Amino acid sequence: MTTRHFLTLMDLEKDELHTIIQRAIALKNSPMLHTDSLQHKTLGMIFEKSSTRTRVAFEVAMTQLGGNSVFLASSDTQLGRGEPLEDTARVLSRMVDFVTIRTFEHSKLERFAEYSSVPVINALSDDYHPCQLLADMQTYFEHRGDIKGKSVTWVGDGHNMCQSYMNAAQQFEFQLTIACPEGFDPDPALLEARKDYVRIIRDPHEAVRDADLVTTDVWASMGQEEERQKRLKVFADYQVDTEMMALAKPDALFLHCLPAHRGEEVSAEVMDSPNSVVWDEAENRLHTKKALLEFLCKK
Ligand code: CP
Ligand code: NVA
């Protein structure tokens, strides 16, 4: 049996992703469904970057479903002292039931997965953040129903979150408009591969017109701290504020993976507006983690 990994949204079939979203909704709505589905299972967690939501969601999900987790800050492990990733993957595979990794280069996740005999889950890389998209999709489904055929606008950097939205557009069949400054585009090969679902419109006001969902992310991601000052200038016209949201549909939702920088990529007013469902989105990190772990456990 081949080991299933979750490095990007493309690792699962469309129907599998929908099943996970529906299971996450069911787990959230019916606490009685909180079973011991992960009893005696252990999740290894290798984190090379900071995290609040992802780490807590994974750890609480494992605990609430009867399993447990081992948090491994890479600096504290032999990985941090140069032990090859391939060796770590083979060793951990013999002890834990799945591994989640938050790292920089996406290729590290791919290399780890190649040598892992247990499922590997991307907890964020420089290129993708698929777990976040499960929560975003659950949030949209809960508030507005199926996202198929809807119009979604991404405002900001064409980085990991944007690229995950591009994959989501194909998997959940919505139309994605990306408003990013020139020089901050997503990967051109990915853009070409998703061209039936994704387009770029440079002017963010034009891009959000009639959108059903508007979403953004920080202008300088983890690992880009040195570019922060430059990015503040380049992205200055890309703040999602009330005036911009007014161009979207009146019931358009606002999502942000968090942490948010109010006054930069989003105004405080939009963060706290009735259309903003960012706290539900954050909570849904937990429910989707449970559904994903259960799914991978059964494979
Ligand atoms: N959205 C998200 O992944 O948050 P953390 O960095 O806190 O995990
Ligand atoms: N784009 C951000 C997402 C944080 C959850 C980063 O990579 O830092």
Output the structural class. alpha/beta
Tell me the number of strands.
9
Indicate the proportion of strand residues. Answer: 5-15%
CA(first)-CA(last) distance: 8 Å
Give the CATH topology of the largest domain.
Rossmann fold
CATH class of the largest domain: Alpha Beta
Share of residues in helices: 40-55%
The CATH architecture name of the largest domain reads 3-Layer(aba) Sandwich
Task: Output the strand order for the largest sheet.
Answer: 7-6-5-8-9
Oligomer class: single chain
Largest sheet: 5 strands, parallel
Which term fits the overall shape? globular
Bound molecules: phosphoric acid mono(formamide)ester, norvaline
Number of helices: 12
What string, H for helix and E for strand, traces the elements in order? HEHEHEHEHEHEHEHEHHEHH
SSE arrangement:
Blueprint lengths: L13 H16 L12 E6 L5 H12 L3 E6 L11 H9 L4 E5 L3 H10 L4 E3 L7 H15 L6 E5 L4 H13 L2 E5 L8 H6 L4 E3 L3 H5 L4 E4 L11 H7 L7 H4 L7 E4 L11 H4 L6 H21 L1
Parallel strand pairs: 1-2, 1-3, 3-4, 5-6, 5-8, 6-7, 8-9
Helix pairs in contact: 1-5, 1-12, 2-12, 3-4, 5-6, 5-12
Can you give keywords for this protein?
4-stranded parallel beta sheet, 12 helices, 299 residues, binds norvaline
What does it look like?
The protein has 299 residues and is an alpha/beta fold. The chain folds into two domains: 9-129 and 283-298, Rossmann fold, CATH 3.40.50; 133-281, 3-Layer(aba) Sandwich (Rossmann fold), CATH 3.40.50.1370. Helix content is 41%, strand content 14%. The chain contains twelve helices and nine strands. The chain has helices at residues 14-29, 53-64, 85-93, 106-115, 130-144, 160-172, 188-193, 204-208, 228-234, 242-245, 268-271, 278-298, and strands at 42-47, 68-73, 98-102, 120-122, 151-155, 175-179, 198-200, 213-216, 253-256. Helix 5 packs across helix 12 (278-298). The protein is globular and about 55 Å long. The mean pLDDT is 97. It binds phosphoric acid mono(formamide)ester and norvaline (NVA). The site of norvaline has 9 residues, from helix 6. Phosphoric acid mono(formamide)ester binds at residues 51-54, 124, 132, 257-258.
